[in-house]
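Input record, target 12 of the design panel.
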């Protein structure tokens, strides 16, 4: 267990081993939750939670069904294009 100290400005430093264990880089936005006699820190969500019906419209596809092989080939092709 590591310890830290509250500064006169109410700030704390999170020990390097904890930051590395959670892959928290400088600038990571954290949510602080009061859980009684303790606090919980967790990374803030980059995007708000969404329901399927809120985003399902972007999934529409008009055309013949694609095979798994066709989808994998398209993904590989696009990955190669972005790697250049």
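The sequence produced for target 12 reads:
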């Amino acid at each position: 267990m590591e310890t830290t100290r509250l500064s006169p400005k109410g700030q704390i430093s999170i020990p390097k081993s904890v930051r590395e264990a959670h892959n928290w880089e400088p600038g990571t936005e954290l949510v602080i939750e009061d859980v009684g006699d303790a606090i919980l820190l967790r990374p803030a969500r980059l995007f708000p939670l969404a329901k399927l019906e809120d985003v399902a419209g972007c999934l529409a596809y008009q055309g013949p069904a694609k095979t798994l092989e066709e989808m994998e080939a398209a993904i590989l092709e696009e990955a190669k294009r972005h790697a250049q």
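Residues 68-83 form the longest helix (16 residues).
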